[in-house]
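Morning!

As promised:
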Amino acid sequence: MSKLAEVLAAAKAEDRAALIGYLPAGYPSVDGSIAALRAMIEGGVDIVEVGLPYSDPQMDGPVIQKAVQAALDAGITTLDVLRVVEGAAATGAPTLVMSYWNPIERFGTDRFAAALAAAGGAGTILPDLIPEEADDWIAAADAHGLDRVFLVAQTSTGERIALTTEVCRGFVYAASLMGVTGTRDAVSGSAKDLVARTREHTEVPVCVGLGVSNGVQAAEVAAFADGVIVGSAFVRRLIEAPDEASGLVAVRALAEELAEAVRKGRR
Amino acid sequence: MTDDSAFSDAFFAASYAHVSPQPDPAGHYGEPVYGPSGKLGGRFMPEALMAALAELTEAYHKSKNDPAFQAELTHWLRTYANRPSLLTEAHRLSAQAGARILLKREDLNHTGSHKINNVLGQALLTRRMGKKRVIAETGAGQHGVASATAAALFDLECVVYMGEEDTRRQALNVARMRMLGAEVIPVSAGSRTLKDAINEAIRDWVTNVEHTNYLFGTAAGPHPFPSMVRDFARIIGVEARKQTLELTGALPDAVAACVGGGSNAIGAFHAFVPDESVRLYGFEAGGSGVETGLHAASITGGAVGVLHGARTYILQDEFGQTLPSHSISAGLDYPGVGPEHAYLHDIGRARYEPVTDAEAMEAFRLLCRTEGIIPAIESAHAVAGALRIAPRLRAELGREPVILVNLSGRGDKDMHTAAQYFGMEV
Ligand SMILES: Cc1ncc(COP(=O)(O)O)c(C=O)c1O
């Protein structure tokens, strides 16, 4: 069992959802992002996603776009991202890379998988890579013992959910709503339905992301999902902080709030 | 459409029947194309859009072989868009070029460019799919104007995304779109040009896909767009081939077109792909010169990668970040190119060369002064390319070559840019 699977199984054994937090590498700086990821883990996040900043983030809303653009403007590269992964993974928390596909293909598919594994990374989430395009990545991930998370959406047919869950290792990412990353006022009602439809096809844990931003929403999602994924709300804490130290405090506080919520969700 | 222009599944296969390696048009979800550099095209897009892309692919395949759809499209093309477009022999330009130059007058289409062909096709498909809202991206504004036009004609809500930088360069087209009732949303992310407008349109589509269709403006993007846009643009070459035969009694020696995302070029090329004697030339935007790094020549100055849903030639750095493109022409200012051009390049069937801003503007002025035609700056790249290849072809053939130039659009929208370039008052 991979470390990621173990952590998800442990949460399940405690009858709670796992908490998964996203932050982009390189924001507010390379070292600052390592510190923020660590603050998140100290606050109670079980699994982290390190975003690889990309010039054309089609699936991201304004909050993540802003942080990612700042990281790119400061000159972040894939090599720096791997250093951030190393810094986060050293805590023992399973550390995934969230990336659009082209930076990985350009780095070299197998070379990236090897480097990610060497940095202690647990696997990847690749939002613009569908299973039909993923043969090379699946081979590389397998060769280097990495988990591979693919996404299902509300518009996915049963056939596509079957196809996607078939190649998922670690967990399945269920996109809770139709849209891009960002915080929303309410959790979409159909997320629960998507999780149920996904479970018809797989034993792999199903984690829900997109739009979850506070404890109330996290508890709501934790009631029916194996994991709750929070991104933009963490990034916003960093963006709105007057300085790096208070950003870390705010990130840790949000992680604590969410960690409590995922433990309350099923009661 | 004219009789032999019906677009059916058989065309793709027929056009490439003679080439090797064969493209693989089958794929269970799309039409990946295999070239010597590996798999091109594809569908690198979020899962949330797969249902919409599948729905669109199905609608497109059905319409291809549906006589009623073709009759409807033909009706609008003939009675609304002003097809067939003229073929004009450019006598005075020919004398200067040392080649017989024939201009395919897409500039005379309603709305002023080749973009209307594709848009009418996609708007009719939108109606067939029962969707009421369309979105589009635009660079030069020509695709946006064509989309706003079709939306007015077919009573659809229309939102156009346009890079902030382009709304400035092509202010006249912004006014046209708004006059036609479309909402124009300036995009201030990234490089504030076409690529960022596409990102924003994709974000809108993911959010509103249930009732929205994305009218993609060029023969790039995820499947089915490259094939579908080609099929709707293909009428350019079909007409021009016939018109050239009628006028000269023979096929042209070369076809020249400008290449942004590649829709007018693939539209002009496709009917000629099986004609091995016809050389196909795509002219990319060379900006300040490929060697300066300030250009939009994805094939000549880029490398294979994935952008906006397809594997093709793109401008990228060593870490796969898209590099900003540069061109005096907003419509060519895009760091990618349609995958079918990548394929034609890889197999050596078409040749792609960069044309600099300066060369394009010189050709722009020359066409104005010799023929009384003000071309779009995009199209001026094709004219400049034709002037460049004329002596080469003449030497190779030992006679006056016949060059068919696709004049993809008219230059009204570019008057500010051109006046500024030439230091004139507007
Ligand atoms: C007149 C004209 N020609 C060419 C282009 C470039 O697009 P494509 O390469 O898809 O033909 C544009 C794009 O806006 C245009 O307006």
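The radius of gyration of chain B is 19 Å.

Hope this helps with the figure draft.
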